[in-house]
Design brief:
Layout: H1 2-5, H2 8-17, E1 22-28, H3 35-49, E2 55-61, H4 68-74, E3 91-97, H5 104-118, E4 122-125, H6 136-148, E5 152-158, H7 165-179, E6 181-182, E7 191-194, H8 195-203, H9 210-226, E8 231-238, H10 251-267, H11 269-272, E9 279-280, E10 283-284, H12 299-312, H13 314-320, H14 323-333, H15 344-359, H16 365-370, H17 373-386, H18 392-408, H19 410-416
Parallel strand pairs: 1-2, 1-4, 2-3, 5-8, 6-9, 8-10
Antiparallel strand pairs: 4-7, 5-7
Length: 425
């Protein structure tokens, strides 16, 4: 397997380097403007918090054209300015192109392989376009693995109430209801994991599938939970990135993420069918309040997209959803924008029936998940209208109530979910 993933030059460099305790992976593609800051934060974190450990930073690059690898190589840290001293080991750096299907998953595969080659005990991966990353993040992502024997550390962020709505409305509550663990940011982008879990990830036969393109975050989280690895989460503060209007064109992202979640439901059906309720995951770090950047949102535009979808896609919805749900959605579409509301119970029933339709191959799976976009925009519009004047705590409580609806209606999904492998129509 290593012959296919790593070039001889890289294996020679790793051999010369010798064993490594900690590995930090940074996937990239045309991130020259931001990756220098991320690399310096990683260096500072490793030197400050793990001065006695041998550490390696790996940049797994997808063929950047803007000089990203050069920025990584030239990034230097002023350790005196950061009051870092008494380190036993320098932090090594390695930049390598990844091979295979273009995408974040292929970049991670290279990172997993390098972790195996150097025998890393603990690993962390972080995005290359972060503006809010600090050296403390690496302590929070790696310390639970090294000192507490956790296998997987998910991030916990403070986010604007209109940021991460795909996570809030589908990915978090559905993953929680299915597998019984409350990991608040299952597709957060920054994770810590043990060397043994890296080996487990590497051995899985998923690297020619959509996981290699865009489903790696939810695949890692789901695999860790469903296969009974020890999971926890660490509070990292704010995640500041290039936020987008939730009402903007997001059909591709929704299709990728939700399609991955639905596909994993098939893979792990034996793991979630007997799970009822959920348990909290241990949380490390101090949950301090942070300032968050405002996020624009256009409720009338999203309501209009929902109304048009209910009208134009009704024949499609009639194939996917029960007549009762189709009728209830039509009633929502008839509401005035200023009082528009899509109830949690209706939304959760829609998601569960979509999962069942995906399982049964009712229509082409990509078309099926894309057709969810107008309904998702309806939920976001309803959520935004209801929370317009609510505090962060009140919004968290509202999302918690949505999660409970997912858990309460799970029996509906279980009783209708067929075992075995249905044939595609």
């Amino acid at each position: 397997m290593s012959e296919e993933i790593l070039k001889e030059r890289v294996k020679t460099e790793l051999s010369d380097m010798g064993p490594v305790d900690i590995l930090v992976g940074i996937p990239s593609y045309n991130n020259a403007a931001t990756i220098g800051h991320v690399v310096q934060a990683a260096q500072a974190g490793l030197l400050r918090y793990f001065p006695n450990q041998r550490a390696l930073i790996v940049n797994s690059d997808g063929g950047s054209k803007d000089g990203t690898p050069d920025v990584v190589e030239k990034s230097r840290l002023d350790t005196q300015a950061l009051l870092i001293s008494h380190t036993l080991h320098a932090v090594n750096r390695l930049t390598t192109p990844y091979h295979g299907i273009p995408g974040k998953g292929s970049a991670f595969r290279t990172i997993f392989q390098i972790a195996a080659e150097v025998g890393a005990r603990a690993c962390a991966v972080v995005d290359s376009d972060l503006r809010s990353i600090t050296p403390e993040w690496f302590d929070l992502l790696l310390r639970p693995v090294l000192d507490r024997n956790f296998d997987y550390v998910a991030p916990y962020y403070k986010r604007h109430k209109y940021d991460g709505t795909i996570t809030n409305s589908i990915v978090y509550p559905l993953t929680r209801a299915l597998y019984g663990r409350r990991l608040r940011q299952p597709i957060g982008g920054e994770f810590g994991f043990s060397g043994r879990l890296a080996l487990h990830f590497l051995a899985r036969d998923v690297w020619t599938t959509d996981v290699a393109r865009y489903g790696i975050d939810i695949w890692m989280t789901t695999t860790a939970i469903a296969e009974n690895f020890r999971v926890c989460q660490s509070y990292l503060g704010a995640k500041i990135h290039d936020a987008k209007d939730p009402g903007a064109d997001l059909s591709a992202m929704l299709t990728q993420v939700v399609g991955s979640v639905f596909s994993l439901m098939e893979t792990y059906q034996d793991a979630w069918r007997n799970v009822l309720g959920s348990l909290p995951a241990p949380l490390f770090g101090f949950p301090f309040e942070v300032g968050l950047e405002p996020l624009p949102i256009n409720i009338p535009r999203m309501v209009a997209s929902f109304v048009q979808g209910c009208r134009d896609l009704r024949p499609v919805y009639e194939q996917i959803l029960s007549p009762t749900l189709v009728s209830q959605l039509a009633s929502c579409a008839a509401q005035p924008t200023e009082s528009f509301c899509l109830p949690d119970e209706l939304w959760v029933a829609v998601i569960y029936e979509y999962a069942l339709a995906y399982r049964h191959h009712v229509i082409d799976r990509e078309h099926l998940v894309k057709s969810l976009t107008p309904l998702y925009l309806g939920w976001v519009a309803s959520f935004a209208r209801l929370t317009e004047n609510e505090s962060a705590l009140q919004v968290d409580e509202r999302i918690e109530r949505l999660c409970m609806v997912y858990e309460q209606l799970k029996s509906y999904l279980i009783t209708r979910w067929p075992l075995g492998t249905p044939k595609e129509r």
